[in-house]
């Protein structure tokens, strides 16, 4: 019984190594695999075993073919033809780039790729920081926040933000901007933040009235470069940063909503009585304005006490 099992195993090993050979159908013998037919206490003498005696019951006559092949050979694999190679090597037709048409992920840029591949778009935010840009790329119409920091921008055109009705924040910090078109922000009725620190601007265009935060630190702004009463109607303005410029006086009137006013390191030499207070109403108190910086100016704040009697906190400055 044991010899029959070993012979069957050797036949299966032989057939598995010979592709195209199909084993003869054999009726399974369930008795062979019954546990009572196994002698578990007997050690097999493998060295003295004659494997030639196990092939008597198997018929290999059908292998004696003239061509040495089994009758049922597998199908030949289809070989690639010359036509297949020619089709594989065909050069695709060149693609023409439309720099102004709509792209898959946003408008096309001048580099021939969608803005949201050149930059990074996350939701309504477009990040184009430190990309070496010398102009603002066309932005998707649903842009709410644009970051173009640390590039080589020199001028901002009135078409750069045209028709971006959802734009809420613009950050162009750390460029080389020296000028902007006067009406560059006219259509941005939802704009709340304008960050233009560390540029070369001397003149400021007209600003949207809905701004809450304006950062113009470290530019070259001069007082005559600001619109007269340019901040008066900004009833939502809370943070105004104008330090590190060339301003000769504080741009008044300031909106009552203002909380922070930084004017250090300018050329301010005097304060008007109505700079912060209402000279016609001595009971007026400006409650929101809690942080005023005037240090770094050729100004002795002790000489202008009437200018800040309505403030809850004294400004920081030279005494």
TrEMBL record:
- Primary location recorded for the protein, binned into one broad class: secreted
Q: Residue span of the signal peptide, if any?
A: 1-23
The keyword tRNA-binding belongs to this UniProt entry's keyword annotation: no
Q: Where in the cell is it found?
A: Secreted
Q: Which GO terms describe its cellular component?
A: extracellular matrix; extracellular space
Q: Which superkingdom, per the lineage?
A: Eukaryota
SMART domains, per database record: LRR_TYP, LRRNT
Similarity field: Belongs to the small leucine-rich proteoglycan (SLRP) family. SLRP class III subfamily.
Report what the protein is called.
Epiphycan-like
Originating organism: Solea senegalensis (Senegalese sole)
């Amino acid at each position: 019984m044991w010899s029959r099992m070993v012979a069957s195993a050797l036949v299966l090993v032989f057939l598995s190594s010979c592709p195209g050979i199909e084993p003869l159908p054999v009726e399974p013998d369930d008795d062979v695999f019954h546990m009572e037919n196994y002698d578990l206490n007997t050690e097999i003498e493998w060295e003295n075993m004659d494997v030639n005696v196990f092939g008597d019951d198997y018929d290999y006559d059908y292998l004696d073919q003239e061509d040495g092949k089994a009758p049922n050979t597998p199908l030949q694999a289809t070989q690639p033809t010359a036509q297949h190679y020619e089709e594989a090597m065909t050069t695709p037709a060149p693609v023409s780039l439309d720099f102004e048409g709509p792209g898959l992920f946003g408008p096309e840029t001048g580099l021939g790729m969608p803005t949201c591949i050149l930059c990074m778009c996350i939701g309504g935010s477009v990040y184009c920081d430190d990309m070496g840009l010398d102009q603002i790329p066309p932005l998707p119409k649903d842009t709410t926040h644009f970051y173009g920091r640390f590039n080589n921008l020199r001028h901002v055109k009135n078409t750069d933000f045209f028709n971006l009705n959802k734009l809420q924040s613009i950050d162009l910090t750390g460029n080389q901007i020296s000028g902007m078109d006067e009406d560059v922000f006219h259509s941005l009725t939802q704009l709340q933040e304008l960050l233009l620190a560390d540029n070369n601007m001397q003149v400021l265009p007209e600003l949207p009235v809905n701004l809450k935060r304006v950062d113009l630190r470290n530019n070259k702004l001069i007082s005559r470069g600001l619109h007269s009463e340019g901040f008066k109607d900004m009833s939502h303005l809370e943070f105004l940063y104008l330090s590190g410029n060339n301003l000769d006086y504080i741009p008044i009137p300031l909106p009552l909503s203002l909380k922070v006013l930084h004017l250090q390191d300018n050329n301010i030499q005097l304060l008007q009585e109505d700079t912060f207070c209402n000279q016609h109403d001595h009971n007026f108190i400006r409650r929101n304005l809690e942080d005023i910086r005037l240090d770094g100016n050729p100004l002795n704040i002790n000489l202008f006490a009437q200018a800040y009697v309505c403030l809850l906190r004294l400004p920081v400055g030279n005494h």
